[in-house]
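Deliverable D2.4 — example input (structure tokens):
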């Protein structure tokens, strides 16, 4: 690449213009004036002339303490720009991409340059310019962002807001006719670098409607302006539920549409009110609007003129209206889970279980009972405890069988122990009898021996006669 660069440079220098009436041109360095440390910046070098350029040579200069060249389309692959044109050009452009290394201010310029006309090879008188780049840190960039999050103006097309607009006042209101269904909110940011949301065409319903216009400054800070739009209702039907003040919705188009319900009307305070009904659930639904303009469906009991919030769980395969129940499921814990932002009483095996059992009505079939809810897939199926009950019965049967075997084993063990003890006792008695027999035999033998001894003694003694008794008498020898 260096050899190519030298050859082109030599060629350009050899072709010396013969005319003294030189054409003019410029060499400009353009691009962003600011970059954050660590980010990249692309600068463009543009050679241009009023006459066709046949050849040129330029070199870009920069401080490598601040900038690191990462890519370029120059012929030499670096800062050198040397080339010629077979047809002549009036403009030639090069791009250089740098990575910012540290904060500070640095200059990028053209330190050598020359160009020659295509027609007569005359030298073109060039004027070069440089580019100063300011390198800042991320913190310095964020500190330079605008903090202005004010509105310059706020209005409702065709109506007058109250009070008169001021950028420091954030609460406004406007009253519109009863038949108004849409309004157009216009607002302009005070600083063009800021952004505004909540403007344009907005839908309104009878009663109070609240809109928030949010201004986000360049530095990310936000400011909220609140606009309350009151659509006139000559005869509002007010309802109080707990601490909430609500209004009955009289226009059908404002109502949310429930699944598997039919349109109907009900009479409330001598007004015909749009409603929905279902023979399967037995519910009649009407719309109530809160003070902020939010509309929700409520179960209306015509007999006692009461209302109950209707929280419909629209799952991927079923639509269920949850019902509180006193029923319990053996082996399950009870608690509450949130489905579609609605808290629902549930039963589950453990806190991290994927499945939960809920109680409710399938509004599409009218079937009431337990449903098995999948927290991940957000689906539900009818909970059938037949298999669980059958399994529990089998478990109980097996438990009884096991306890029976355990009892039988214990009984057999006791019988075995008793048998072993009886055998041992019988054996001891036999031993005692044998010992007695032996002892009797020994005694008999001892007596027999004593008899023999006595007989021996008798034989050895002299025989004397008792003349008186006429009997023989043994005479004992006197011991000396």
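Example output (designed residues):
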């Amino acid at each position: 690449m260096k050899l190519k660069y030298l050859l082109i440079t030599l060629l350009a220098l050899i072709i010396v213009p013969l005319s003294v009436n030189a054409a003019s041109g410029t060499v400009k360095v353009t691009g962003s004036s600011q970059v954050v440390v660590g980010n990249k910046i692309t600068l463009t070098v543009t050679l241009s002339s009023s006459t066709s350029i046949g050849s040129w040579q330029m070199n870009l200069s920069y401080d490598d303490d601040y900038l690191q060249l990462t890519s370029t389309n120059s012929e030499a692959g670096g800062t050198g720009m040397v080339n010629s044109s077979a047809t002549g050009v009036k403009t030639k452009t090069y791009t250089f991409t740098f990575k910012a290394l540290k904060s500070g201010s640095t200059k990028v310029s053209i330190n050598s340059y020359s160009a020659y006309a295509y027609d007569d090879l005359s030298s073109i008188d060039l004027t070069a310019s440089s580019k100063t780049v300011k390198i800042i840190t991320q913190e310095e960039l964020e500190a330079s962002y605008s903090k202005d999050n004010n509105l310059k103006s706020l209005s409702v097309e065709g109506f007058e807001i109250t009070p008169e607009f001021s950028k420091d006042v954030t609460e406004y209101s406007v009253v519109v006719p009863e038949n108004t269904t849409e309004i157009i909110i216009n607002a302009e940011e005070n600083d063009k670098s800021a952004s505004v949301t909540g403007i344009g065409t907005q839908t309104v319903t009878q009663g109070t409607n609240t809109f928030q216009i949010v201004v986000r400054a360049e530095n990310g800070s936000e400011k909220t302006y609140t606009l309350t739009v009151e659509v006139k209702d000559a005869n509002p039907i007010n309802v109080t539920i707990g601490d909430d003040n609500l209004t009955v919705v009289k226009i059908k188009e404002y109502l949310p549409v429930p699944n598997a319900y039919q349109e109907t009307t009900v009479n409330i305070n001598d007004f015909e009110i749009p409603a929905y009904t279902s023979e399967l659930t037995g519910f009649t639904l009407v719309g109530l609007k809160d003070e902020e303009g939010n509309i929700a469906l409520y179960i209306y009991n015509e007999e006692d003129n009461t209302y109950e919030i209707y929280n419909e769980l629209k799952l991927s395969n079923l639509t269920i209206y949850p019902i509180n129940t006193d029923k319990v499921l053996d082996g399950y814990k009870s608690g509450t889970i949130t489905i579609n932002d609605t808290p629902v009483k549930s039963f589950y095996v453990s806190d991290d279980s994927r499945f939960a059992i809920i109680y409710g009505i399938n509004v599409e079939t009218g079937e009431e009972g337990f449903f098995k809810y999948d927290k991940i897939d957000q689906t539900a199926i009818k909970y059938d405890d037949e298999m669980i009950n059958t399994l529990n019965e089998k478990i109980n049967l097996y438990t009884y069988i096991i306890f029976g075997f355990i009892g039988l084993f214990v009984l057999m063990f006791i019988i075995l122990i008793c048998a072993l003890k009886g055998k041992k006792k019988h054996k001891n008695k036999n031993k005692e009898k044998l010992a007695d027999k032996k002892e009797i035999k020994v005694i008999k033998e001892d007596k027999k021996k004593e008899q023999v001894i006595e007989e021996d003694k008798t034989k050895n003694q002299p025989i004397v006669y008792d003349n008186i008794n006429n009997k023989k008498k043994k005479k004992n020898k006197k011991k000396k």
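The CA atoms of residues 151 and 373 lie 48 Å apart.
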